[in-house]
Amino acid sequence: MKLIIVKNQAEAGKKAFEIFKEELNNGAKVFGLATGSSPISLYNELTNSDLDFSDCTSINLDEYVGLKPTNSQSYHYFMNQHLFSKKPFKKSYVPDGETKDVAQEIAHYNKIIKENPIDLQLLGIGRNGHIAFNEPGTSFDSVTHEVKLSQSTIEANSRFFDNIDEVPKSAICMGIASIMSAKKILLCAFGENKQDALKGMIEGPITEDVPASVLQKHPDVTVICDEIAAKKLK
Fold first, then answer.
1. Which pTM was predicted?
2. pLDDT digits (tens, 9 = 90+) for 68-126
3. Which residue numbers are catalytic?
4. Considering Cα of 201, then 30, then 28, then 45, what sign does the dihedral take?
5. Where are the beta strands (DSSP E) in the chain?
6. Contact 143, 95 (CB under 8 A)
7. Burial level of 52, CB count in 10 A (0-12/13-18/19+)?
8. Angle CA(58)–CA(83)–CA(61) in degrees, nearest 5?
């Protein structure tokens, strides 16, 4: 596991961009992408660059069940806003949150991942060590699955909606085994609230209680974090 410590998120975006550029130049064709605040500085760098992804495929980690792609809280919308509208890929896959048959969409998404092996997977990390929606206790053997959101997550997300009844109760999420199948993994983490998660991921035991700790088993992981997030690392 390679650790790169930077001063701030803007500098991290530049470092992450260099990794994306190198992988693209070395023939990478399939990129696993993430949502949230952590990748935004990278996406800004990508959209302002002359890199060409028009012959590449992207596969996103997750999507809320029940949200249309046009809903401003959907991950489809996020990706279009921050990347796809300015830097299109040949094909971009995000789980279908509108599906009437979640089990069928899960099978379909697993097939997509199998047919398009991921060259570079981008990740963030949750404060409890989760990766994507894979919360503590998720099996390391998991593939794409439906995750029931905890009541605390639903309540936290309710600030983005008119009322709590509109908040999605579950999400379709790429599993840990699917993430680990990527040839190379790049994880970004920033801020004080990621200190314990980073320490558990890098220096703690490999345990399903800290899902990201499984990355210790992967042959090619790069972690980019700011000085604050790295503070508890030995």
1. 0.95
2. 999 999 999 999 999 999 999 999 999 999 999 999 999 999 999 999 999 999 999 99
3. 62, 128, 130, 135
4. negative
5. 2-6, 30-33, 57-60, 62-64, 91-93, 120-123, 145-148, 170-173, 184-189, 221-226
6. no
7. exposed
8. 40
